[in-house]
Amino acid sequence: MKIKGKITIILIISMLILSLFNLNIAKADDVTVEDIKGGVSNFMQAGQSQNNPLNQEGLQNVSDVVYNVLLAVGIIAAVIVGLIIGIKYMMGSVAQKAETKELLAPYIVGCVIIFGAFAIWKIVVNLLNQTQV
What we know:
Blueprint: H1 3-21, H2 33-49, H3 56-91, H4 94-130
């Protein structure tokens, strides 16, 4: 039997089991709009009365360390791969030079992705730091 058929049978059996139990988890008959508004206001008051448990300076320090370490690793990897491609190009024959030129496009795309991701990360972190509540 194909996988699609097995998945269909499993879904049908699970639907039958769920319909047999007919679980009513929430009943909307007993809930009014005032109950919902009261619950929302209680939730908002509870959230406003508490202090922020997150240490923002600690999070920022960790983010900066992770950013700098990953950026350094990305730069080192890009330089090493660039050196390897350059050495292959200088030392290779005509056929090897053609193969090496084919490696340049993925290398450049990879560098753009790596450094573009770090630039986006830094922009997002700066924007979030400016819009702190």
